[in-house]
Amino acid sequence: xxxxxxxxxxxxxxxxxxxxxxxxxxxxxxxxxxxxxxxxxxxxxxxxxxxxxxxxxxxxxxxxxxxxxxxxxxxxxxxxxxxxxxxxxxxxxxxxxxxxxxxxxxxxxxxxxxxxxxxxxxxxxxxxxxxxxxxxxxxxxxxxxxxxxxxxxxxxxxxxxxxxxxxxxxxxxxxxxxxxxxxxxxxxxxxxxxxxxxxxxxxxxxxxxxxxxxxxxxxxxxxxxxxxxxxxxxxxxxxxxxxxxxxxxxxxxxxxxxxxxxxxxxxxxxxxxxxxxxxxxxxxxxxxxxxxxxxxxxxxxxxxxxxxxxxxxxxxxxxxxxxxxxxxxxxxxxxxxxxxxxxxxxxxxxxxxxxxxxxxxxxxxxxxxxxxxxxxxxxxxxxxxxxxxxxxxxxxxxxxxxxxxxxxxxxxxxxxxxxxxxxxxxxxxxxxxxxxxxxxxxxxxxxxxxxxxxxxxxxxxxxxxxxxxxxxxxxxxxxxxxxxxxxxxxxxxxxxxxxxxxxxxxxxxxxxxxxxxxxxxxxxxxxxxxxxxxxxxxxxxxxxxxxxxxxxxxxxxxxxxxxxxxxxxxxxxxxxxxxxxxxxxxxxxxxxxxxxxxxxxxxx
Length: 604
Known about the structure:
Elements: H1 5-46, H2 65-80, H3 83-93, H4 101-108, H5 119-130, E1 138-141, E2 147-148, E3 152-159, E4 197-203, H6 207-226, H7 236-250, H8 253-267, E5 274-275, E6 288-292, E7 297-298, H9 299-305, H10 311-329, E8 332-333, E9 341-346, H11 349-365, H12 384-393, H13 398-410, E10 414-419, E11 425-426, H14 430-445, H15 448-458, H16 468-484, H17 494-507, H18 514-533, H19 539-554, H20 557-562, H21 565-586, H22 591-596
Parallel strand pairs: 5-10
Antiparallel strand pairs: 1-3, 2-3, 3-4, 4-6, 7-9, 8-11, 9-10
């Protein structure tokens, strides 16, 4: 290709500008950011001796009061340091295998509240994506953000109809189900249909450059810290690289759009009342995500005010959805805190048919309903959006909230769970999946010593593990404690088991893969949320139907050849043991004694 002289000059000018930007301006800005971060974190380092102040106290989880104070100080300073360090704190909270539990708890409570960027930036990004003036894109646009995070902020809007692709308006969960009965006779909610109402997520300006500068600074210090004796097992440079990859995934909103589409596809043939916002991938770019707007209530409101008649349903459906992601799909939402789990309402076809029939009879007999009390909850004829909006106004008043939920239940409405903010997902590779199944296999065989030995052999740095024999014995002790407790009444908390495992991993420097630990932390979070709603929640019982479905999938010759034989054997042992446990419970046999004396699957 022969360029004109003017093109050559522009190309040369561009190279000169790029050179000065990358070699002069960017290092100066990085140094400026470094000085700012030093002002924030040097006081934290100077206060580090507080870690040794006080005596270890049981009520503080074995930590000293000075250490607990220092954890809070560190967390508040990370909040001030900006989006990278807020996300770093949230990521560190998921690594209970590396950091003390009290520190993880405080960092996990750190919210991604960011400073809202100016509306002009949002309008500029939207106009660039849609290739038309901002005023010609939306029928309505609420200029007040409905959420502002560390990386992006979200608006609610209504797209013009000519910009909505027909595929976006097709009903969910249709096509793959075989309808045996007429739709009106099944007790399933009608498939929801997306509308023109959308959520618009826009990245903050310059956030990518700031995060890249922070990652450069983190990489430098990670390499410096690794020089000190005893710090090699943390593999900090590798962890910074993993964290950097996670941050870059969140900086490309097209990845979140693909994740949402994958989740919807995975759940479309299932009867679970679970929904994911449908993305409009045609309008989603690196800086902009357009997705269906879900008018729903955060699960936090139900945990705070009580879910009333919906407690058991929410706990079971949420746990079932997670187990489907983990066991069947190997595609797990990695940010499942109560703020990202939303609740809306839907009415089964049978309830709609009953209501229509009641109305017809009233018209036929000439009877009318009692006059509505203006202070009463929404009438049954109102929409799901009306119910959500009404409950939202009652959130500050728990008693009225619970009374309204009772009325909603009486009117035949059922809850539907909506998972949002799917920018991060976890997919276990072959080795991590094997490690995970081996943990459950240890529960089935009560062979914690072997599980501990395998965990050391398969960890990232087995040569740096401390006192492997003691670690294996600790694992055996954990599993034997499980064996002595009851499995029949849901009193075993899988989260208790996994928490003890993570403590042992941290103490003996057994460095597990991040994806494996993320999966474990997701189980801790989900079971913790579920037990707040339903104290009798039994993860093993919830997993049994999903293990049966996985067994049917594995029974095909094609799938059997794709899975390692070790996975199949471990799965079969867990499955058989859980089936025997369920059978014992159904027969009113004391399952405690059967577990204690090895009457359940003794030969496995």
